[in-house]
Write a structure and sequence with these properties.
Blueprint lengths: L1 H18 L1 E3 L6 H15 L6 E5 L5 H13 L4 E4 L8 H7 L8 E3 L5 H10 L3 E5 L6 E2 L9 E4 L9 H4 L4 E4 L11 H22 L1
Parallel strand pairs: 1-4, 2-3, 2-7, 3-4, 5-7, 5-8, 6-8
Helix pairs in contact: 3-4, 3-7
Enzyme class: transferase
Catalytic activity: guanosine(18) in tRNA + S-adenosyl-L-methionine = 2'-O-methylguanosine(18) in tRNA + S-adenosyl-L-homocysteine + H(+)
Family: Belongs to the class IV-like SAM-binding methyltransferase superfamily. RNA methyltransferase TrmH family.
Length: 206
């Protein structure tokens, strides 16, 4: 029974990680969280990605569900959302197609973002904003650091000024059309893919 109990505890622990419901302020220390991500990568046979996608500013469940699906498919280490209640939304679930069961989801409310970004900086993450500014890097010319945090803006207001100051870099997607803005899920997906593409190339070179 002792062996069975240990096995059950282990299974429970993995199930908790698999559900990925992690309120940031009440979560395990960052090191434990990092170990959970590595454990997930090993068990799922995925790359040990260091890309965190922060979608706390996004309001629409469809965009969040799509980002959840994209982040899981390309092996992001976590998706940060403003509220875990979105997971129960039917529109979210329709777009995510169960990706939330396999991707760590961290709750960071918009009011907590400054503290969260500062903490991630101390952990060695580069804070990257998807935004068009005078000093933005063209996506086709930007080289993603291994530890990258991608901050996506709100559907209407983008990234607010108080958060722009906390970014290490802004990256924009080159565009040729008359309409000058992409849907935030599409923008996020393009950067997530480019990060993944660069890391795959790097791994092949090693």
């Amino acid at each position: 029974t002792g062996s069975h109990s240990a096995e059950a505890d282990s299974q429970t622990e993995w199930t908790d990680v698999q559900k990925k419901i992690i309120p940031w302020k009440n979560s395990t220390p960052s090191l434990d969280l990092e170990m959970a991500f590595q454990d997930r990568a090993a068990k799922l046979g995925k790359s040990n990605s260091r890309l965190i996608v922060v979608a706390s500013l996004i309001d629409k469940p469809t965009n969040l569900g799509g980002l959840c699906r994209t982040s899981e498919i390309f092996g992001a280490s976590a998706l940060v959302v403003g509220s875990l209640h979105y997971i129960q939304d039917k529109q979210f679930q329709h777009l995510s197609v169960s990706a939330e069961q396999w991707l760590p989801l961290v709750e960071v409310k918009p009011s907590q973002l400054v503290d969260y970004l500062q903490q991630k900086k101390t952990e060695g993450y580069t804070i990257i904003g998807v935004e068009q500014t005078a000093k933005s890097f063209d996506l086709t010319e930007y080289c993603f650091p291994e530890k990258s945090l991608l901050l996506l803006g709100n559907e209407h207001e983008g990234i607010p000024a108080n958060l722009i100051h906390h970014l290490d870099v802004c990256v924009e997607i080159p565009q040729q059309g008359i309409i000058r803005s992409l849907n935030v899920h599409v923008s996020g997906a393009l950067l997530i893919w480019e990060y993944t593409r660069q890391q795959v190339i790097k791994q092949k070179q090693q």
